[in-house]
Structure formats: structure tokens, C-alpha cells
Amino acid sequence: MLLDASNSKGNDNPGGTTRRAFIIGAASFAVLMAQGEKLLGLLGLGHRHITSSNTVGRGQPGLVSLVEFDNSGMKKGKVMADKVIKTDAEWKQMLTPEQFEVTRKQGTERAFTGKYWKEHEKGIYRCVCCGNALFSSDTKFESGTGWPSFWAPLAEENVTIDSDSSLGMVRDEVRCTKCDAHLGHVFNDGPAPTGLRYCMNSASLDFIKK
Fold first, then answer.
1. Which of 129, 130, 176, 199 is catalytic?
2. Which tens digit of pLDDT belongs to each residue from 93-126?
């Protein structure tokens, strides 16, 4: 049985019940969202709210801070580099169709099909678009996902983490700081010492063997 709040005895605020119901409902929704975010975190799908020291926006020209490495993986030092900005037509001229779809259009290669998911040689992984040093074989591990996975980048400055709300969930997208190439996503279900899993697309990487 529904009661008409506007006609109930002693009710001087007809909208009070509605407002109270809204507040209670909003609070309940916030609790459910928090519980859902916690569950996603346990499943390795939650958003980690990672921030980057570089503040140049996606697709915007400017200087970014990077750490350079030689092909043996030895650190050379920090540099300030110009952001690499190209048109889609220019990227298409230098990339394969799959590389373009993954790096410039945020695509994802099918699991167990990329050329690096079972790569076990020693070396470093650079951005296929601009050559920025991204990952080392020293932090690569077998995640069982079918994509090359790392528990840390060569340098935090060299990758940028953005929020990705596609596919009905919030994830942490990993991009190349130097050229904004989409690399993959990072999850919090990796091994020690970081507990992270940088799940990358082979199509976004260029492996340089030691």
C-alpha cells in the first residue's frame, strides 16, 4: 500500500520524503560502487589511480621527461624530449595495419597471437612508433594471459597511465609518454616486488635482443 506523503497528517514538507529517499538511495549506490571497485581490484580489473609526472596532454605538442636507455638496457640518464605528433596518414605509412589499429586506435590483438607473448630472449622492448624504451626482459613474466606481461616498466617516466572506461569497466590504460601510442593496460594482480601486471600488445612493441 502506497501512502500519499502530501496528504499524510502532520507533514509540512511534501517533498521531504522524496528527498530523504533520494539521499538514502544515493548513499546505497555509493556503497555498492565501492564494493564493486574492491571486487574488481581483487580480480585484477580495478582502476589504480596511477598518476604520471608528465602533464602534456594526449595529442598535444610539448616537452616530456624521459629516461634514455641503450639497447643493452643500461640507463643513460634523463632527458627532455619533444612529443612525437603525427597524422593518421603519417602513422599508416610507417606502421602495419595491426600496429596502427593497436597503437593509434586503442585496439587489442587476440591473445596468444602476438609475436612476443612467449619471447624468452634477453633484451629490451621499445615503442614500435617512436623507439622510446619501455620494458626489459628482466621484468617480463609468464602471466598465462597470452600477452607479453611485465611487473614494471624500465622507467615510470617513459609510460603514461590514463583512465579507460571502455568495455563497461574502469581500467588503467598504458601509453607511451613520447608519442601517446596505446600499449595495453596495467592491473594489480602481478608478482612481487610491485604486484603489477603490465599487459602489453606485441604489436605496440619492438624487441631489441641483447
1. 199
2. 999 999 999 999 999 999 999 999 999 999 999 9
